[in-house]
């Protein structure tokens, strides 16, 4: 059963990455405003239902997942600690949360390239 879960997770991650890659490439090529869910689904060969299982909207696929927040355990640990390096500890828990959220740096870079010139 563990193998099936691992395979399922890998397939899900590959599908999510494929949809995001298609959407980002289309947005870079045509402009964000000219890309629709239908276009993304047709090009990435997925149904709208599949698209919406992964992303809630065109904006969602372009922006990626919502910003990561530290886990309750990390937040409780930060609050409970009385260390002298508060800023260092805070940076550590934020970095941990962020790195667990967007492991694909190539998608992150494309998102940044797309969003920087048109932050709205």
Describe this structure in words.
Residues 36-55 bind DNA. InterPro entries: DNA-bd_HTH_TetR-type_CS, Homeodomain-like_sf, HTH_TetR. It holds the Pfam family TetR_N. This is AcrR family transcriptional regulator. By secondary structure, the chain is mostly helical. Helix content is 70%, strand content 0%. It has helices at 2-30, 37-44, 48-54, 58-63, 72-80, 86-99, 105-115.
Number of beta-strand segments? 0
Going by CATH, the architecture of the largest domain would be Orthogonal Bundle
Distance between the termini: 45 Å
| Helix content range | over 70%
Query: At the fourth CATH level, what is the homologous superfamily of the largest domain?
Result: Tetracycline Repressor, domain 2
Compressed to H and E, one letter per element, the order equals: HHHHHHH
Question: In percent terms, what proportion of residues is strand?
Answer: under 5%
Secondary structure class reads mainly alpha
Shape: globular
Instruction: Determine the mean pLDDT.
Output: 83
Sketch the major β-sheet. Answer: none
Q: Please compute the radius of gyration using only Cα atoms.
A: 18 Å
Runs in which pLDDT lies below 50 for 5 or more consecutive residues are none
CATH class of the largest domain: Mainly Alpha
Number of domains: 2
Tell me the CATH topology of the largest domain: Tetracycline Repressor, domain 2
Count the DSSP helices. 7
